[in-house]
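Small ribosomal subunit protein uS9
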Amino acid sequence: MSAAAAKATLSATGRRKTSVARINMTEGTGAITINGRSFEDYLPTLQLQNTVLAPFQQAGLAKKFDLRISVKGGGLNSQAGAIRHAAARALTQFDSELRGELKPHGFLRRDPRMKERKKAGQPGARKNFQFSKR
């Protein structure tokens, strides 16, 4: 068996709102590609990049893994949250001891907040049509 085949590939799924992220994690130098594009190209702001890297920094494994990420649905902020969720799940597969370190920060919790559905007889989820007394 070759050295490349001996590398374990960990995969996990993360979700937030309507975004779904699938992550393939292998030990490496810290290269990250999202939907075939570079990390900095896909997530242009430092805030979004820090959201994705937060579980690795918390675990102290910042540049130890190469990530291949496929993400769809939602906006960039939601996608970054889904990637963070998937990364934290993959890290717990790598080492179950990291669970105690990641869980208090909420990285393993799926954010339950969703967009509220539009109700019948109203223009939006909570908005009502204008009321006219006379």
